[in-house]
Design a protein that fits this description.
Elements (H helix, E strand, L loop, with lengths): L6 E5 L4 H12 L3 E7 L15 H8 L4 H7 E6 L4 H8 L14 E6 L21 H14 L9 E5 L16 H7 L1 H18 L10 E7 L1 E3 L10 E6 L2 E3 L5 E3 H14 L2 H4 L3 E6 L1
Parallel strand pairs: 1-2, 1-4, 2-3, 4-5, 5-6, 6-11, 7-10
Antiparallel strand pairs: 8-9, 8-11
Helix pairs in contact: 1-8, 4-5, 5-7
Length: 280
């Protein structure tokens, strides 16, 4: 997709993988919008964001303030607020009036919440156990509120390994950890995936999206970007699954792969309707 061809909307951009992809997209000249949780939005008492957190993170990733001001529209709000989400999907840039002629081409969502190990590290909890499915449901509802003439985008959603019912996609040694610590968010991710599958199963004229790409990375780390040649991929489509089994992938490499394949490459078409496992 040429840098000036359309808008890319990001959800969960303060997280490492989506942040890495957004930073690369902005530096390449893409017009982007991003959702950020409002400081006074309280889906749970543990959640708080300062108004400039995303901009600070982007500057730390070598994105200049001039690029941020020109190419990025940030919308703050609750991820369950359809009107706020719709503003991310149909932004009006404060600096680039040509945005009015651009349409949404791609949505990249990495919404999620980390486990809470306090006060009992042996019994982790999650302060928002349905955030992924609720976010995707809101995105789909918001898309239906856009003008009927709007092109239908592709949604790329960040899921996880360890949830496939078709084939094992995690090493045997990691299965107890996944089942003990991550049972709740894994259920949430499965429900999110189910929403996307149900959406594309509708007749084309009734869909809110053209198609989806679900990414199932291995356990995410804060390591350096090693490059695309270090990454292995697997696929699951319908009843057929040939996953790539591995221990980890860095957030920077996952974000870099999303940029290389979904924005710069033909990954939106190549992986359409697929669950893509990604690992070292």
């Amino acid at each position: 997709m040429p840098a000036n061809d359309g808008i890319v909307a990001f959800f969960g951009a303060t997280g490492g993988s989506i942040l890495a992809c957004l930073a690369l997209a902005l530096k390449a000249g893409y017009t982007c919008s991003a959702w950020q949780l409002s400081a006074n939005s309280t889906p749970s008492p543990a959640v708080s964001r300062s108004s400039d957190k995303l901009q600070t993170l982007l500057r730390e990733n070598d994105v200049s303030q001039a690029i941020i001001d020109t190419h990025l529209t940030i919308v703050q709000g609750d991820i369950r607020d359809t009107q706020a989400v719709a503003r991310v999907l149909n932004p009006q840039s404060k600096s680039d009036t040509s945005n009015t002629n651009r349409t949404l081409q791609l949505i990249i969502s990495g919404i999620g919440r980390p486990p809470i190990f306090y006060p009992n590290p042996l019994n982790p909890t999650f302060d928002d156990p349905t955030v992924c499915q609720d976010a995707m449901a809101t995105i789909l509802t918001a898309l239906r509120s856009l003008p009927p003439s709007s092109p239908k985008p592709v949604v790329a959603a960040l899921s996880t390994t360890g949830i496939s019912s078709r084939a094992r996609d995690v090493p045997m040694l990691m299965i107890p950890f996944y089942r003990w610590v991550l049972a709740a968010p894994h259920k949430d991710k499965l429900e999110m995936e189910a929403l996307l599958k149900a959406e594309v199963a509708k007749p084309a004229e009734e869909r809110a999206i053209t198609d989806f790409v679900v990414l199932r990375p291995s356990f995410l780390t804060d390591g350096a970007r090693l490059g695309t040649d270090k990454i292995r991929l697997g696929e699951e489509v319908g009843e057929t699954a040939v996953p790539a089994v591995g221990y980890t992938i860095s957030r920077k490499d996952l974000g870099g792969w999303m940029f290389d394949q979904l924005l710069e490459g033909q990954g939106k078409d190549k992986y359409a309707g697929k669950m893509v496992t990604i690992t070292y």
